[in-house]
Amino acid sequence: MNKKRIGVIGIIILVLLGSIVGGSLYMIDYSLRPVNRGKDMEGSMQYMKQTYPHITPWIDSLQHHHALRDTFITAPDGIRLHAFYAYASRPTRHTAVIVHGYTDNAIRMFHIGYLYNHSLDYNILLPDLRYTGLSEGDAIQMGWLDRKDVMQWIDTAPSLFGDSLKAVVHGISMGAATTMMVSGEPLPDYISCFVEDCGYTSVWDQFKKELKSQFGLPAFPLLYTASILCDWQNGWNFHEASALRQVEKCQKPMLFIHGDKDDYVPTWMVYKVYKAKPEPKDLWIVPQTAHAESYLNEPEEYTHRVRSFVEKYID
């Protein structure tokens, strides 16, 4: 093989490597730094009132009485994190920590805040995850780094609601994956149970599915190199960010909810995490329901299912 041919092959290899790295960096920015509706607080409030009109009087009442409050904490890496909170109508230790989804924010979980605060009369704490709402951060963390932030909010809850609280952690979509990731960690005794609504099995599985459905591409090589670059940029990789492995370690009760028409976080994922989770657990597959629309489609049944579940473990 002559030197000219070797040089051509070398150039081709360099171009391919450059394309793979460039594509992987694009994938990370596309996935973790998207145009973020979660930063639009006013638009998020308008969306919630239009989509869930029955919660508007509750929101207006909280705002009128200055009962919807802001609080901030600082994570160990210096990132300032925000949450909304509100007290129940009477002193109670019953509390819900409510975790939002991908490119959403705490406001976009006010329908679940309504469920707990208005329908069940719980205290509520709704964090803005990193890169959303009023929280700082330079990228979405897909639940894995967020689990540590939620654990810090859990540790903060007694200072807001009292030392004797009993709490549920309830998340939707990425917030559900975060909830499952939290569930595998050592937690205070006052965390009594979990509700996960349409969470994914792992970041790897979700990104693999999106790479195929959006771009028609296989996992190799982009997903592998993007995972390595994410580890370099953010300190975690797509394989370790696994809700599936976390629920295997969870000994506390969990309610799993998923729409049977979900093609964003495919319905098959809930069966895998449900099977992996030790007892006690419960599962509700919501008929004719797409991603994150279970409460929207079945608000009364959703409230009944959640109430029945949490009442078994929060006294």
TrEMBL record:
Q: Which InterPro entries match?
A: AB_hydrolase_fold, DNA-binding_regulatory, Peptidase_S9_cat
Query: Which residue numbers delimit the Peptidase S9 prolyl oligopeptidase catalytic domain?
Result: 147-314
What keyword terms does UniProt attach to this protein? Hydrolase, Membrane, Transmembrane, Transmembrane helix
Annotated GO molecular function terms are: hydrolase activity
Pfam families xref list: Peptidase_S9
The regions listed as transmembrane in this protein's record are: 6-28
Organism domain of life = Bacteria
Name this polypeptide is given: Alpha/beta hydrolase
What organism, scientifically named, is this protein from?
A: Phocaeicola acetigenes
